[in-house]
Amino acid sequence: MINFINDSVEEPYILLKKNYLDAISVKQKSVEAISIASFSKDKNEVDTRFVNLKYVDNNNFIFFTNYNSKKSVEFESHDQIAAVLYWGSINIQIRIKAKIKKTSTEYNQKYFAERSPQKNALAISSNQSKPIDSYESVVKKYNKSLESNDLKECPNYWGGYSFTPYYFEFWEGSNSRLNKRDMYKKNGNNWDHSILQP
Q1: Which domains does the chain have, with CATH numbers?
Q2: CA 130 to CA 149: how far, in whole Å?
Q3: Cα-to-chain-centroid distance, residue 48
Q4: For residues 12 and 14, what is the distance between their CA atoms, to the nearest angstrom?
Q5: How far apart (Å, rounded) are the C-alpha atoms in residues 159 and 103?
Q6: Which residues contact 146 (CB under 8 A, 6 or more apart)?
Q7: In a designed cystine with 98, which of 71, 83, 161, 163 is the match (CB 3.0 to 4.6 A)?
Q8: To the nearest 10°, the Cα dihedral for 49, 60, 163, 108?
Q9: Separation of alpha carbons 31 and 42, rounded Å
Q10: pLDDT digits (tens, 9 = 90+) for 126-183
């Protein structure tokens, strides 16, 4: 589930939430899954992965991760990202372009303290994306972390990212291939709206 807070009155955000509620109404699985693409300046290549979108707070999209992860390093070197939501149950794809930045330490600590001990144990024990000798070692590290007394204390290598879109495209699929595409592009304080050909 995605938590909507301080709902924006701007048109693309209204349309986003409408589509989200439509997807929820037909029990869309993994409705919070969002693909995030990043760029590595060092390797001159792009990469992508799914993360769990936790909040849409006014015009900010927020998810959480390990700050030492590969994607985090890429966000630091190049703060422009692309993102995609796809809700197959209603045949809607939402493409986004945005600038990304870390959430505050205070924000991270508050969120971390509200999470379950199991989730926090994993966040503390995992050196995300780093090689390890076996999956059994992953489980061992996790179980050891579960025994800790500080599972409500957010480590400094874990926290949130917030991104603010400057581009939306809402794609609505059609069996006839006459797909509907609404594009919104930020222009100062306003959004320019265009219909794109299929």
Answers
A1: 3-103+160-196 (2.30.110.10)
A2: 25
A3: 11
A4: 5
A5: 7
A6: 117, 118, 121
A7: 163
A8: -80
A9: 33
A10: 888 889 999 999 999 999 999 887 899 999 999 999 999 999 999 999 888 899 999 9
DSSP assignment string, 99-116:
EEEEPPHHHHHHHHHHS-
Q: Are residues 122 and 140 in contact, defined by beta-carbon separation less than 8 angstroms?
A: no
Closest to 167 (Cα-Cα) out of 182, 187, 192, 185: 185
Structure tokens at 25: 């109404």
Q: Are strands 92-102 and 158-172 parallel, antiparallel or unpaired?
A: antiparallel
Residue 8: phi and psi, rounded to 5, are: -70, 145
pLDDT tens for each residue of 58-99? 999 999 999 999 999 999 999 999 999 999 999 999 999 999
* The pair of three-digit structure tokens given for residue 50, joined into one six-digit string: 């799914």
